[in-house]
Design a protein that fits this description.
Number of helices: 14
Radius of gyration: 28 Å
Oligomer: single chain
Shape: globular
Number of strands: 18
Distance between the termini: 47 Å
Largest sheet: 10 strands, mixed
Length: 534
């Protein structure tokens, strides 16, 4: 049974009183501050369960169980007498610390209690690991590690900007820096809220606002870093945005069972047994099973998306069915009778569903209506999707999860291939000058997800640039050479000023091949997917 819980988080602006507590009630909290509604879904049975979801019955302790329990107690007593510090350190951090250790690099592997370590060896992101008595002190943009041995002999401090684009200095300068430093118990801030699970510190600044970066730099690294903690983790977010949580709260709630903390606005002192600062990233829109504690892959992330969006999709579909029934009743019995199909006629074969992801601004398919008619003529049931900033993500997910094929021009919206089921077809239209990026950012990741990827590279005459530059111009014939003049030139010419007019006869070949593949898969079982490039 799916239970939906509504949590209201009261977040206070700077200077407001901080004595209000987090409200986990079904009614809105009292007091000032801005209120954020945060939903999460609990897919458990609510307790121990036996077969068929029934409560498990208690069982008397057997003789062998008694001696086993006695042996464990004797072992624990011996450990306590031999090394009491290590014993209490283990008891304090629990299984979460052991699981987190798998996420730590060789540089910081095996850190003990009362320890701070940073790994700055990766080109993509820095990470810091702290274990012990950690206290979030947002007023000084820091976490305090309370020393267990009185006043620290030497000052220990680390600073980090918890964002996953370390190599882009101009972006990293915009990310707030957080300080970790050791303090004595007498100098430590008093705890207002205590947590018995680790925190993960991250930023939703930088390129957030672009759907590619929201997944590549944020959600996927969050999955890689915290997915193994089984939702017993608290996300502490620097550059927190209400709209980001509104957009991705369903996904975040599948990674954490607790509301995230706005690092800047929440001035209460939150205390944790462990903090992971920064996120681990494996590559472009990917999860490397060899680098995750449980061997998880990009398909596991996609299953998480399905868990996140399924309850909302089910609700929308119930509302749609209810509206349809109401409309049928309003139309009258006579109209309904006329609409009934002839039961003696065979039902038409289901046509593969194709979604065209439409763009506005630049890299527009100028003959999109003709493309839509062509795809229908080939045998597809065609739907055009135009993602907007305000479009609810679960609605886009529903369209693409139900589709058999997706067609779109290279750009951030191609990130939505993550919403497709393995074995389906993804055709990316590759404008001039975008070959490398189209394959690196979307083509190869799509193939790793198990999609049949087709990169349709347009010819110069299919580009709107052919109307601006004479035949033989390097912009048309040598995009790689033009790209050597720098990213600014590439962006201005090939990304911001280029549209596409498809050669429909040429593109028809790709649609026919995709249709045959999909139909054959339904008849004989899905053939092994593979990536193609034209």
């Amino acid at each position: 049974m799916v239970q939906q819980h509504r949590i209201y988080v009261v977040q206070f602006d700077k200077g407001e009183p901080d004595h209000e507590e987090l409200s986990c009630k079904a009614s809105p909290p009292k007091g000032g501050g801005r209120r954020i509604m945060y939903y999460y879904h609990d897919y458990g049975t609510g307790g121990a369960a036996g077969k068929n979801g029934k409560p498990a019955k208690g069982r008397a302790l057997s003789l062998s169980g008694f001696f086993g329990l006695l042996l464990i107690c004797l072992f624990g007593l011996a450990t306590l007498l031999a090394a009491p510090g290590a014993f209490f350190s283990f008891a304090r951090t629990g299984g979460a610390a052991a699981a987190t250790q798998q996420q730590q690099s060789e540089r910081c592997s095996g850190i003990g209690n009362d320890t701070l370590c940073c790994d700055r060896s990766s080109r993509r992101a820095d990470m810091c690991f702290a274990r012990g008595d950690l206290r979030m002190h947002s007023a000084s943009a820091s976490f305090q590690l309370v020393s267990s041995a009185g006043r620290p002999a030497v000052e220990e401090e680390e600073r980090i900007r918890p964002y996953t684009r370390k190599w882009e200095a101009h972006v990293m300068k915009t990310i707030d820096e957080v300080r970790f430093h050791r303090v004595s118990a007498g100098d430590a801030a008093r705890c207002d809220v205590r947590h018995d699970m680790p925190a993960v510190l991250l930023s939703t600044g930088g390129f957030t606002g672009n759907v590619y970066h929201e997944f590549n730099d944020g959600l996927l690294p969050m999955f890689v870093t915290a997915g193994h903690l089984q939702r017993r983790v608290v996300f502490v977010i620097v550059e927190y945005h209400d709209w980001w949580m509104t957009k991705y709260g369903d996904v975040v709630s599948r990674l954490s069972a607790f509301p995230p903390i706005d690092f800047t606005a929440d001035r209460r002192v939150h205390c944790f047994p462990e903090v992971i600062a920064g996120l681990r990233i494996h590559g472009e829109l990917t999860v490397d099973p060899a680098k995750t504690p449980e061997g998880r892959s990009i398909r596991d992330f996609r299953r998480l998306l399905d868990d996140a969006y399924r309850p909302r999709i089910n609700y929308l579909e119930r509302m749609e069915r209810k509206a349809a029934r109401k409309q049928r009743r309003a139309s009258g019995a006579a109209a309904t009778k006329l609409a009934l199909p002839n039961k003696h006629l065979a039902a038409p074969a289901e046509r593969p569903k194709l979604v065209i992801v439409s763009r506005t601004g630049s890299r527009v398919i100028e003959n999109e209506e003709e493309l839509k008619a062509l795809a229908a003529d080939v045998g597809f049931d065609v739907r055009v999707v135009r993602p907007e900033r305000s479009t609810e993500m679960c609605k886009i997910y529903r369209d693409l999860n139900a589709s058999d094929a997706m067609v779109g021009v290279h750009g951030a919206a191609m990130t939505h291939f993550l919403f497709m089921r393995p074995g389906k077809v993804f055709i990316q239209v590759v404008p001039l000058g975008t070959d490398w990026a189209a394959n690196e950012y979307y083509g190869e990741p799509a193939a790793r997800l198990g999609l049949r990827y087709v990169g349709y590279k347009i010819l110069p005459e299919e580009s709107s640039l052919a109307r601006e530059y004479p035949a033989g111009h390097p912009v048309l014939t040598d995009p790689a050479g033009v790209a050597q003049r720098g990213w600014d030139v590439t962006k201005k010419v090939y990304l911001d000023r280029q549209n596409v007019r498809l050669d429909l006869a040429r593109f028809r070949e790709e649609l026919v091949a995709a249709h045959r593949y999909l139909v054959a898969g339904k008849r004989k079982g899905r053939p092994k997917s593979r990536a193609l490039a034209m």
